[in-house]
Write a structure and sequence with these properties.
Chain B: This is ABC transporter permease. The complex is a heterodimer of chains A (298) and B (264). Chain A is of the alpha/beta class. Chain A is 38% helix and 26% strand. The two termini of chain A are 38 Å apart.
């Protein structure tokens, strides 16, 4: 439902988003994971025509965002929960959107109820809202037009653990009805709870994509040696892709015995050789992003 | 806030229903609503109302008897309006940035030119509504305190002048707001510019001689009289309007088209 192809945004010398390609399938929640400043928000802004890409394209249901008539009815967007006029009440903010989209006012009440904002809270001005309440209001605003695609930037920010579970249920309802959701986060734990698929980004480049299970399953081998540089070359010669680990040594997508064989063949003494820990997505995420950060420095 | 158990909302439309583009009329309604649905917007409108009424009362009590006509009252009440309505026009545009509402506005309607058009139309509607109200009040004031046989003289030309003054004022506000996209900068520039121009006109002879060609206040002055404008005066008004309303509107629009809409 979302097809992003070679999307690139360059600010002067800085490649904020660099040749990003991925797709989001209907019926799936796709987590867009990356550390702060990795290019998640810029990518999402390009998806909804707020930022012009330097090159590449992003299509939603086969169309560019700016070519979708009344886009709020097709794509629900929450890019920044704080981007609401602080002087308007919660209900008034939704009413304006409903008016623009040509929706029945009853829809506003439905959405307020759905996200758990009480009538008293809806009457208060947004400036007095907590971050969690703003997120709920933002989600209500995104769902208002009964969209088929949801784009959410850090929607779990400011939600408590119960709130995150609530969002998971909400999004799984949304996707089981055929919708597609793309949500960004810099916290793996949030995404692990909510997402089905993952797109991992670091320094503007995609570093991994796949289903959550896939990425969890391919947790590989942690290896440390007397001569990491030589071992890295030897592994690369075998067609493997060792990734330097944030905690020293490197991580390889291979069984420990394979790595051991390579080390033995090159007579490199190992100081550590073990399968990476379970729940390895986090380790992998740290490694992927740390490795990417290092590449940028060297 | 309650962590409500999620219900199953009909959040996803089953099949792709044909959705039509948002008509401009609806965008205008949204912009009009935005002008009055915050406290700051309401206060501004209230201030404009109070200032207009105040001007009428003062004029009714202290004004020269022969000028206490419907035209005199209307012109008097128009002064605070042309002074304050541009601020409304400015805020209509700049609140998208200063109050960060632009993210929602431009995701719901990515055709930015239409959003600008809707804001411009909304500003004009507000300006004309203000003028209509002002004429009603001026009529009431004339009925109460009007003097002389010309008390009720208000020709089409006079009305046209008032409309022009009002429209130039609100449109200049929209143009300045769009050009600077920042409430403070736009308001300061809007009020500082006439002062600066006035100083120039006062002290630089070369400027003074041609002031009507580039100073909006000078070229507008004939509109405050009941005499018809000469061809040259119309040309001067057109030139200054292009310079101080048309040009900033165009540059601001071009800037908005290219600009990235961000949150911070």
């Amino acid at each position: 439902m979302i097809v992003v192809d070679g999307l690139t945004k360059v600010y002067g010398e800085h490649r904020a988003v660099d040749d990003v390609t991925f797709s989001v399938e209907p019926g799936r929640v796709t987590g867009f994971l990356g550390p702060n400043g990795a290019g998640k928000s810029t990518t999402l802004r390009m998806l909804c025509a707020l930022t012009r890409p330097t090159s590449g394209s992003a299509l939603l249901l086969g169309r560019r965002y700016e070519d979708i008539p009344n886009p709020g009815r097709t794509v629900g967007v929450l890019l920044d929960a704080s981007a609401q006029h602080p002087g308007r009440t919660g209900r008034e903010s939704l009413t304006l959107s409903a008016l623009a989209m040509g929706l029945d006012r009853r829809r506003v009440e439905e959405m307020l109820e759905l996200v758990g904002l009480t009538p008293a809270e809806a009457r208060r001005r947004v400036g007095a809202y907590s971050l969690g309440m703003r997120q709920r209001l933002g989600i209500a605003n995104a769902l208002l037009g009964s969209p088929r695609i949801l784009l959410l930037d850090e929607p779990a920010n400011g939600l408590d653990p119960a709130g995150i579970r609530w969002m998971r249920t909400l999004l799984s309802d949304f996707t089981s009805a055929g919708g597609a959701a793309l949500l960004s986060s810099h916290l793996l734990r949030e995404v692990e709870v909510i997402a089905d698929d993952l797109v991992v980004i670091g320094r503007g480049r995609i570093v991994a994509t796949g289903s959550k299970e896939e990425l969890l399953a391919t947790a590989g081998t942690v290896v440390r040696s007397d001569d990491d540089r030589a071992l890295e070359q030897a592994l690369r010669a075998q067609g493997l892709e060792p990734v330097p680990s944030a905690r020293g040594g490197m991580v390889v997508e291979a069984q420990p015995v394979e790595v051991g064989r390579v080390a033995a063949a090159h007579r490199i003494p190992l100081s550590e050789l073990r399968p990476s820990e379970s729940g390895g997505l986090e380790e992998r995420f740290l490694e992927l992003t740390a490795a990417d950060a290092r590449e940028g420095v060297s | 806030m309650t962590t409500a158990s999620p219900q199953r909302p009909a959040t996803v439309r089953g099949q792709e229903a044909p959705v039509r583009a948002i008509p401009v009329r609806r965008l205008v309604l949204v912009e009009l609503r935005k002008a009055v649905d915050t406290r700051s917007g309401l206060w501004l409108l209230a201030a404009i109302g109070v200032a207009s009424l105040g001007a009428l009362v003062i004029f009714g009590v202290f004004g020269p008897a022969e000028e206490r006509t419907v035209y005199g009252f209307a012109g008097m009440a128009l002064l605070p309006q042309t002074f304050l309505l541009p601020v409304l026009g400015i805020l209509l545009v700049t609140s998208e940035w200063s109050a960060r509402a632009g993210l929602v506005t431009f995701t719901l309607e990515p055709r930015r030119g239409l959003v600008v058009l809707a804001k411009t139309v909304a500003a004009v509607v507000l300006g004309l509504a203000g003028l209509a109200l002002l004429l009603v009040v001026a009529g009431a004031a004339t009925a109460l305190a009007g003097t002389g046989d010309q008390a009720w003289d208000l020709g089409a030309r006079d009305l046209g002048h008032l409309v022009l003054l009002q429209l130039l004022a609100v449109l200049q506000g929209v143009a300045f707001g769009l050009l600077l996209m920042n409430s403070t900068a736009a308001i300061v520039l809007y009020f500082a510019l006439p002062v600066a121009m006035n100083l120039l006109v006062q002290f630089v002879a070369a400027v003074r001689d041609h002031a009507a060609w580039f100073d909006l206040a000078t070229s507008q002055a004939p509109l405050y009289t009941q005499a018809p404008l000469t061809g040259e005066q119309w040309a001067q008004l057109g030139a200054t309007a292009l310079l101080w309303v048309g040009l900033p509107l165009l540059v601001g629009y071009l800037r908005l088209r290219r600009r990235e809409i961000t949150t911070a």
